[in-house]
Structures are given as structure tokens and as C-alpha cells.
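thought: fold this chain, then report.
action: predict
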Amino acid sequence: MVVASLKFQGVFLQDEPVRSLVNSLSKNKIFQTYLFLGSESVGKRRVAKAFAATLECLSPQPTNEGFWDCCEKCLSCKRILLDTHPDVTFLTPIGTEIRVDQVRRMHEMAFLNPFLGKWRIFIIDPADRLNEFSSNSLLKILEEAPPRVLFILLAKNPDRIVNTIKSRAVKIYFRSPSHQSARDTLYKIINRPPDEICMIYSACDGLFGMTLQHLSSQETFVQNQGKTLGESQVWYLSELGKIGAEFQNLFSHANSLEFAQKIFEGFKSVSPITLLLARKAFTREIALSPFLPAAFPTLFTKYLFEKIDRMKLEIRHQINSFLAGQKENYSSSLLKVVGEQFQQMIEDLGNRHVLDFFQSLLFWHSDFFRFKNTQDVTLLLNLDRKEDIMNLSRRHWATKKIECLKSLLSNFDLFAHNVNPTLILEDTLMRIGENIPWDVA
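observation:
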């Protein structure tokens, strides 16, 4: 089990960002604003906390590599680990966006003297959820903030951050690691069998942070092999049907809008491992089939969206009940706005499950393409099922699967542009399921 750490030395696969930040610390050259850019689950928040911890640490320690790191033992470090440090503030969305009133409160806090540490540090996560008004308010703060105030913005989509903010920030880029380097790191730090690590990494679609979280838990993982297409479909839809009840159980602990938001964001970012394994098994059966039953695309698409609609209904009921109980704590206008934003988040969650299913199909076909062209198994995401991929490459209809990749990429782009997801998924499954090659030009 990997113990939660604040140290830079405990950051994996992000040597360049760490090197840049520790060099700034060594030279005592700290900039006012940093923009951490990178995809999901690559360690942006983890590194932001390490940077904040080292700046606020009451007894920073020199390392064998010659840079300073936090001690993890002082009161300041312990409070940062628990997200309760009075001088380190996380600014996260309420609903779907970071609101201007949140940024204005941050403006007021920026002019207060540090209470426990030496700095006032604000971590905005994700900064690409700032709206037009909160972005303008943030820009004003960046222009006026006093010394010893630090802003760390985390984002995966730089195009959604206004240029005037980007121009004021030092950009730190977080690269997604190769599949093999990610697996090699997990082999070293996780005390589990390599086959199990490969399986969970594959189920998490190569998201290192999510994989690490699941592997560091006390969960027992069982590989369900030998399921038919129909059996794996039943398993996947069954696991998807449990999401609403799991959300209700988690959300029952919410006692404020901020905490409710944190629960929702955490729920969205890490799916149950049983759902991930079921999805991977089902998409494997689809991808490996030379053809699919004629009725399958229409019927499965219908069942999938029925499950998702049911999930959204259960979550919506829980959130509406929560908001109704907050009338004495928040203004009606705020609750109305937040309620509307939560509804959008529910829709986004439903779309996310469709997108994740679609991506899983895409990754299988990408693996077929990689192996067909390179014969290099280390490039595969689904290394735990490399025999399936190698065997498929030798079959006479394997070329069809390579052609499927073109359609998947095209339809994935349509999905990203909000074209009807029902039609896209059904069309994709029909193309995968045809028993003769087809022209996708």
C-alpha cells in the first residue's frame, strides 16, 4: 500500500515539473502565479500540494539530490495533508464553474497576513472552470496581490483560460507517461502481482493516478474471464445500475455546498473498480468479435441509456433533497444557481459514462493498430490481454478492425462536439459489428 505523501520525492513520472519547481525553491525565486497544464490523473494536484507544503514547512529538509523538501512531520505539513491549512486555500467549483463571489472572497483573503506559515497560497482546481466574470476578477487580484501570495492554477484545457491570465503565469507542463513507464513504476511501488497491476491499469484506461488509488486500497480484484458477449453485457449494465445507490450513500454525508461539490467531483473522477473491470471485459468482447448480432447495436444502446437515465434520476433526487435542506444556510438565489449547475453536472456525468465506454472501445482498436504495425507489446494499453491482440492480428479479418479505428476516431470527434450520443454509439456498434469490411472514407 502506498502511503499518502507530500514530498517531491514521492511524486512519480513527473521529473520535469518537479525539477523546475525545486530549482525555483533552491534559488529562492518564487513566481507569483503558476499554471500547471496536463491531462487528467497525471499528478498536477499532487505536485501543487508538494510545492505548497515545502513553502509552508516549518522544518524543511535537504535531500540527497541537493534540493529542499517538506518534513511531513510539522503542524503545517500535517494540516496541508488534510487540506485544513489556514494559509493554503483550494478554490474549486460550486456547481459547474468557479463563481465570481468565490474569487472575490479569495481577493480579501490574499491581503491577510499568513496565520501559520510564511505564504498565502491559493490552488485553483480546475482553473479552466473559471467563467468570464471570475476570470476578470482573478486578473484584478493578480495585478494587486501583495508579496508572499502565491497562485497555482491547475488545468487540462489551456484554451479555456483567458490569455491575459496565461501571460502572467509560469507554465509547468505535465506529460502523460508511456504505458510501459507507468506500469514499470507501479511494479516498483505497489506490492501486488504484476498481472494484477496490468489488469487494473488497463481497466483504468491508463490513468496513472486512478490506477494508483485503486491498487493502494484494500480491494481484492478478480479477473472475470470466459464471459460471452451476452454475459459481459449483463455484468456491465448491472454494475452501471449500482452507481445511483453508491452516490446516494456518499452524498448523505454532505453538510455544505462546498463539501457536496467535493463529494461530487471525487465521485466523478474515480469510478468503482468493479464497473471498470466490467466495462473492459464487455468492450473486449465487442472488439474481438468478427461480427455482432444484427439487433445488438440498437438493443444495447437502448439498455445503456435507460440505465444512465435511471442513474441520473436517482442522483437528481438526492441533490434536490440536499438543496432543500440548505435553505437556512444559503440564499435562495444562490441555491437556485447552484441547483441549476448541479443539474448540468448530472448530465455531464451521464455523458461521461457514455464517453468512457466509447473510449474503451477506441483503446482496444488502437492496441490492434499498434501491434499490427509495430509488433511491440510494450506499447499496448491492454497488456494483460496481449494474447487476444496478438491472435487477432493473425486472423484474416483483422484488417477490418484497423478500419474500425477510423470510424471510432471520427465518431469520437462528433461526440466531443455534442452530436446526439445515442445515434453516434449505435452507428459505431453497427460499423464494428458488420461481418464484411466497409468503406469509411
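thought: worth noting. The longest strand covers residues 149-155.
final: C-alpha cells above.
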